[in-house]
Amino acid sequence: MDTNIWVSMALGSRVVSEQMQVIIQRPDIDLYISVELLDELTETLAKRRLQKYLTQERTQSLFDLIWLKAKLIQVSSADSHCRDPKDDFIINLAIEAKAQLIITGDDDLLVLNPIDKIEVLTLSEVIQRF
Questions:
Q1: Which of 43, 55, 78, 114 is found 20 to 30 A from 2 (Cα to Cα)?
Q2: Max CA separation in the chain (angstroms)
């Protein structure tokens, strides 16, 4: 799950929140996080331009959900895969977690579909499959 999905959920996107509930409730879907993902999420949510859309409660609820549902993966690889090097950690996380797919809205990741036998799909595409 890419950072942009978590950010959309924190900002209160009804569609993303509803779609995420479908994903989260499925026992056959595992979510993975890494320190890099948590750092990027924290930095993004701390941006001044987003503060007017966030509440402390919503932000805390998001992190509570992440810790409840996601598995923390120690990523040791720093391989380059993406035209935007800032997105490489998502791919490395997925590879090390042996994930079957990456859920993202980021075009720099979506153009790589598939990468290393990992599908790269939007949240809507994943929902359509289930």
A1: 55
A2: 40
Helix (H) or strand (E) holding 74: none
Here the tokens at position 57 are 């409660």
Strand extents, DSSP E, the chain: 31-33, 70-72, 101-103, 119-121
DSSP designation for 22: H
Provide the token pair at 13: 């996107």
Q: 68-93, pLDDT tens digit by residue?
A: 899 999 998 777 788 888 888 999 99
For 120, list phi and psi in degrees, rounded to 5: -120, 110
Q: What angle do CA 41, 10, 116 make, to 5 degrees?
A: 50
Beta-ladder partners of 118: 115
Q: Can you tell me the distance from the alpha carbon of 95 to that of 60, in angstroms, rounded to the nearest whole number?
A: 28
Rounded Cα–Cα distance for residues 6 and 17 (Å): 9
pTM of the model: 0.85
Distance CA 83, CA 59 (A): 30
